[in-house]
Amino acid sequence: MSDQRSPGRFSRRALLNGTLSLVPLSAMAGLIAACGQPAAPAAPTASGATAPKAPSTEPVSLTFMSWSAAGSSGRKVDMDLSDEYMKANPNVTIKTEDVPFNDYMKKLQTMFAADIGPDVLWNSIWRQPNFARANVIVPLDDLAKNDSSLPKYAPTALEMGKTKGVLYGLPASASTWVLHYNGDLFKEAGLKNPAELKAANDWTWARLEEAAVKIAKREGANLVTQGFMTDRQAYTWMAFAHNNNGTFVADDRATFSVDTQPVIDALQLLADLMLKDKVSPTLTDQQGGDYVPRFSTGRLAMMCTWAGTAGDVLAVAKDKFVFDVIEPPPAKAGGRVGGYWHANLVNVNTKAKSREHGWGLTKLVAGARAEIMRVEAGQLNTPLIDDPALIHAYKTKSPVKNSQLVFDLLKTPITLPYNENWEEQRFKVVEPYMAEVYDGKKIADSIGAINKQLNDLSPK
């Protein structure tokens, strides 16, 4: 659905061409050439970017595309920001368009291949490398370096906006993968909760497993109170592996070592909670309820998911029970702890009708006040900007006591495997394999082949 605020029409033929929507972005440069545009040159470096200059006062129409659903708070924020930018720049009109997340990438591929890509766009951190390689988004280093109005991002956040060392996207709407726990269930079982265990330097894998076993309850074959929910999210495996001093993927984001013992042990722990201890719902059982409704029943002690989910839990559970968040535990007391978190990114099209206004809108959308607007609207994104008002808004709006956690984990990020082929690696290798392990497959007999598959799929 779109909100038309300026003249403009997309090619129906391009939008309906199903074959284009299935073409990998790595082939996009060739497709663009086939649509009448010269083939893209080699990917630019930061030194090739244009320094900021005063935006033109000539009339210009920009398109701004995101995956926020129509009627959602995210969509409203995008529209309000567009209105604000147009008010400050009367010569600019902006068409905002929202596309459902599951269809978003297909539409972007189709539009860029037909040379009608949006001027400013939301993008996923793991998808940006293909856009950069196809030379369809602007390298931002020089623009950012010389722009005193740029927010003060956490250094690790700006690094997430880079591809091969070049900044292409400004980070916004970040998420941090944490462990949510039901404090009342720990209290009912006569156990210290994870925060109390951490304070005593005793929050470890062993304590998590012991608590899950003690809290879990069965009525016949039914697990009516669940000690922990083992999911098939790659994020959970990576977080536990990191906190066991493991290296799931190297700093190059492409060299995997999932067949090393610390990484294997992390997956085995998650499998044991389901298969040996039987304190987790099976994957089949999990199809009957998502994270929020399952946790909000008050009968699940621990689960791993995004920190921002706490707001959704509160909206459903209200004051039914006390809950909080904490990092997944280290394997042993005093061990390494890191945070699996990532930002979404805002990019500017290399063919934007006005690069200067595209950059101006991007800064606004990824800025501190925009993030405050999202937090106040109920989107508990991890603040990536050192801004007192934003930090205050997050801590005030967050329903959990340990809201400081997301700020602490920004300082110790887990290396992300976000290379050009990560989606294929994740959905065709990692998470299907996790499901097989949770169904009884022996890790020792199969992990070597999985590691080889991952490395074979990595870009060379």
Give a written overview of the molecule:
This protein is α+β, with helices and mostly antiparallel strands and 460 residues long. It has two domains: 2-175 and 343-410, Periplasmic binding protein-like II (D-Maltodextrin-Binding Protein, domain 2), CATH 3.40.190; 176-340 and 413-457, D-Maltodextrin-Binding Protein, domain 2, CATH 3.40.190. It is 42% helix and 14% strand. It has 22 helices and twelve strands. It has helices spanning 12-16, 18-21, 28-34, 73-88, 101-113, 128-133, 141-145, 155-160, 183-188, 194-199, 205-215, 234-242, 261-275, 283-286, 291-296, 309-317, 355-365, 368-376, 388-397, 405-410, 422-438, 447-457; strands at 2-3, 60-66, 92-98, 120-124, 162-163, 166-167, 170-182, 217-219, 222-225, 302-306, 323-326, 340-348. The strands form three sheets. Strands 1, 2, 3, 4, 7, 10, 11 and 12 form an eight-stranded mixed beta sheet that branches. The chain has a two-stranded antiparallel ribbon with strand order 5-6. A hairpin with a 2-residue loop joins β8 (217-219) and β9. α4 (73-88) packs across α17.
Topology:
Layout: E1 2-3, H1 12-16, H2 18-21, H3 28-34, E2 60-66, H4 73-88, E3 92-98, H5 101-113, E4 120-124, H6 128-133, H7 141-145, H8 155-160, E5 162-163, E6 166-167, E7 170-182, H9 183-188, H10 194-199, H11 205-215, E8 217-219, E9 222-225, H12 234-242, H13 261-275, H14 283-286, H15 291-296, E10 302-306, H16 309-317, E11 323-326, E12 340-348, H17 355-365, H18 368-376, H19 388-397, H20 405-410, H21 422-438, H22 447-457
Parallel strand pairs: 2-3, 2-4
Antiparallel strand pairs: 1-3, 4-12, 5-6, 7-10, 7-11, 7-12, 8-9
Helix pairs in contact: 4-17, 12-13, 18-19, 21-22
